[in-house]
Write a structure and sequence with these properties.
This protein is an all-alpha fold. The protein is 85% helix and 0% strand. It folds into two domains: 2-233; 315-486, no CATH class.
Amino acid sequence: MIDNLKLRTKVMIPLALMSAVVLAMVAFGANRLSGVSATASDIIERRDLAAVELTRAAAAMSGVPHAVFAVLLYDQDDAARKVAKKDFETLGPEATDLLTQAAELLPDKADDIGKFIDRFTKIAEEAKEPMEVSLQTPGLIHGIGIQQIDLVQMGHGASLATDVDTHLRALITDMSAFNKDLLAANVTASQGLSVKARDAVTNMAVVGIVSTLLAAAFAIWMSSTRITRPLTRMIDRMRALAQGDLEAEIDGLGRRDEVGQMADAVQVFKANAIERVRVEKEAAEHRAEIEDERRRVEAEKAGATAVQSQAMKLLGDGLRRLAGGDLTSRLDQQFPSEFAMIRDDFNAASRKLMETIRAVVDSTSAIHAGSHEISTSSDDLSQRTEQQAARLEEAAAALDEITSTLKKSAEGATQAAEVVASADDDAKKGAVVVKQAVQAMAAIAKSSEQIGQIIGVIDEIAFQTNLLALNAGVEAARAGDAGRGFA
């Protein structure tokens, strides 16, 4: 419940609690002091006032005997007697009223004060008798002029006045004692109020201190367990996440306060970090797969290159042997399947070349024999024969050019064909010029036919060696004179 409160609310709770404690303490102290104040007011407003009223009543009562004696002392027409008579008439009711007010102020003492009123009322009735006596006698102030009978009346009146004075003195004494007890009780009550006031202040201080300590303890507990500790744990989790610890549990999830909001945000960071790690792992695996594939392709490429290099080496070795004049050279090694056709074509071309050269050699031998036969018949024919041989040499040179380069092979074959054609024309012209050597010319014509066959074979060789022309041309060029001999 507390975890779902906002931090501001959590901070305000201890303050509100302390404020409530202070208010309660103030209310408690005010209540106690209010009681003390009420009691003090009661003492001041009622009990002390009642004591004052009693004192005033006693003072009024003490004036009654003086008024009675003054009436007996002065003549009826004397102004002093009138004042005394008036005092007697007013002091009695005044004292009664004061006692009545005191009784109203002290309900708990109303019975005692009522008794004082009754006693005073009775004494006031007794005081009326000397007042009646004073009306029947002259004032004592006349002295020796007073008659005997008046003296007797005046003595009786003085005796009655003395009794009134005695009774009033006793009443005033009792009232003084009562008033003294009342004042003592007021003093005791005041002292009690002082003690109560001190106790109230002490209690307020104790309650305030205890309440403040409790509120402070609650505030410390609230701030440490509900604010500081969750924030500290949150900081530790954030540091752990920053260091790569994605297994750290996030505290505070589900809370609806700021800590919960922070926990939700950190949980998002954690989820993003986990997703990033997953993506990086997948990317690393993908890169590893790509690297493996690249190495595999490179290995296959290297293997293919090695196979190709081996095949080209074997083929180059065969061509070098062939260029060196070894027409029996064959490629008997095992070639990869993709190069097997080249091996077969090389071997077929080598066999065909050997057969062609053998045929050329045979034809050349036949031509040489025919030329030797007619050399004795005619120098001109010999010269023609030599020219024909030169032409044959030119054909051989053309064949050399064919084997030296792929592009020139066809041209060499064409030139060879032209040379053979020219040789054939020359042979025919020789037949016209030297009619006498018909048989020799027939032999020359036969040789020309054989040379035509040779040219056809050469064309076939050129066709068969198209695939090997480039390497053959390179090898022939590198062979130099040996290559010319090969041609």
